[in-house]
Design brief:
Layout (H helix, E strand, L loop, with lengths): L13 E5 L3 H12 L3 E6 L4 H9 L3 E4 L12 E4 L4 H13 L4 E3 L12 E5 L2 E5 L6 H14 L4 H18 L3 H13 L1 H7 L3 H12 L9 E6 L10 H7 L4 E4 L5 H7 L5 E4 L11 H13 L3 E6 L9 H11 L3 E4 L4 H9 L12 E5 L8 H8 L5 E5 L5 H11 L6 E6 L7 E6 L3 H5 L8 E5 L5 H5 L25
Parallel strand pairs: 1-2, 1-4, 2-3, 4-5, 8-11, 8-12, 9-10, 9-11, 13-14
Antiparallel strand pairs: 6-7, 14-17, 15-16, 15-17
This protein binds S-adenosyl-L-homocysteine.
Length: 481
Amino acid sequence: MNYAPFFFKLDALPCLIVGGGSVALAKAGTLLGCGARLHVAAETILPELQAMLERNGGSFALGGYDSAMLDGVRIVVAATDDRALNSRIRDDARLRNIPVNVVDDPELCDFIFPAIVQRGDIQIAISTAGVSPTLARYLKRRIEQVLPWNLDQLSDWLKVKRREISKRLGHLQTRRLFWDEVIEGPIAQEVLEGNNAKADALLAQALADHDPMPRAALYLIGAGPGHPDLITVRGAQLLAQADIVLYDRLIPPDVLTRYARRDALKISVGKSANRYGMTQPQIDALIAEHLAANRIVVRLKGGDPGIYAHAVEELEIARRLDVPWQIVPGITAAAGCAAAAGIPLTERSGANGVRFLTLYDEKLHDQAFWQSLALNTKDTLVFYMTTRQRALLCRKLLEAGFNSATPLLIVEQGTTPGHAEYEATIESFAARYGDHAFMTPALIIVGDVVRWRARYGWKEPPQQRRVWFGEMKEDRELIQD
Ligand code: SAH
C-alpha cells in the first residue's frame, strides 16, 4: 500500500483523539505542535496529556465514546487499547468522510504518522507504509546523522538573503545554479558555524560583477585514531564537500570511500619516518595550488588536527590567500588508545592531569624537561612518536625520580582491528620487550592509570598481528575544471 506524502496545514482545524494513554499523548504532541484545535475523549487520561491540552488550548472529556463526537471534526485518531472500539470509530469516521488514524493498525488507517526529522521549519517525514516503525526510526537516526544539527540556521539565513538575490539575479536558471553553489559550498558551512559576517562577505564577493562563486576553503579534519567509525559527524559532513582530499598515512582505509565524493581527487601525502612521502613544504604547495584554483581542500589527518599535525603551517596558507578555513577536531590517539585499552587518562583518586608529549628528537629534551615531569609524577604521560626511544625514555624517567614500578603501556595501531597492547613497568619494559619491532603507529602511556587496564580492558588481543595502516594506493583522478 502506498501513501501519498503531503504536508497538511492543521492550523486551528478541529481534531479528535479517542484515548488518553501514552500513545494518545504522543499523537497529541504532534497535532498540537502543528496548531490543531484538539479535543480528547477518554475513559481516563494521563495527567501529562491533560496538562499538555491545558497549556495548548486543547480540551478533553472523560467518559465513553459516542459517534456524535465526530461532528465537525476534520481528523480523527483512534488510540484506545480496545481493537473493536477503534474499529467502530473508524467505521463512523468513514461514514462522515473524516480521515482516520488507528494506532498500531495500519490496515484500518486512512493516514499514518511518519517518523520525523525536524530542524526548525524543515521537516523530513519517513514512512514505511506502516510496515515497520522500527525501520522508520532507524532511517530517522541515519538521516539525523548526515544533516547538520542546526540546518534551520541555514534556512533562516536563506530566507533573509532570498529577496536580495532575486533582485540581483533575475534569470531563474542563473538563480538556481547560484543557490546550488551557495548551499553546497563554503558559504553554507560558514552560516552553519554561526560565522554570518564571513558568510555575508563571501556572498557579496560572489555577487560582485557575477564573479565565479568563491568555492575555495580549507578544512583541517581529524579522522580519529584509526577505527573508521571514530571520525566525528561534522568531519564526515565536511569531507563529503571536498574537491580535493590530502590525506595522511594514519587515515583508516574506509573513511575515504565512505565519506568523500567519488569524484574528489584523493592524494596520499603520507609522511613517515622510514618511508618515502611528501615533505611538509610539498604538502603546503599542493594546498596553496588547489586553493588558488578555487577548490575545497580537505586536509585529513589522523587523530586530532591540532596535535602533532603541522596545523599552523597549513592554516597560514588559507589565511594568506584569504579563503575561509575550519578546524574539525578528532579523537586524538591518546584518547582513542586509552579508551580501547580500558584506561581512564585521569582518575579522581589518582592522576589529576594528562600531558601529551613527544621525544621524537631527544636533543630537544634537556634536563629541565625531565625534571618538570618528575615534579608531578601523578599526571598521566602520553608519548606520541616515541616507541623507538622507549629504552631512553624509561631510563630518563627512572633517573628523574619516577617510581620504578610505574606502569608503561605501548598501544600499537590503537582502536583498529590490529590493536595490540604491551605492558610492563618503566624498570622492566626494556628487558621484557627488548628490540621488539612495534608496528606503527604506536603510542606510550605512562602512569598509574595503566593499572585499570587489568580490570576494565575490553578488547581481545588480535588473533595474529595485522597491518592496518598500509601505504594506500594513490588515487589521482583528473578533476573536471
Ligand atoms: N594528530 C595525531 C597525532 C599525529 S603524530 C593525533 O592527534 O593522534 C603520529 C603519532 O600519533 C604516531 O607516531 C603515534 O604515536 C600516534 N598515533 C596515531 N594514531 C595511533 C594509533 N591508532 N595507535 C597508536 N598510536 C597512534
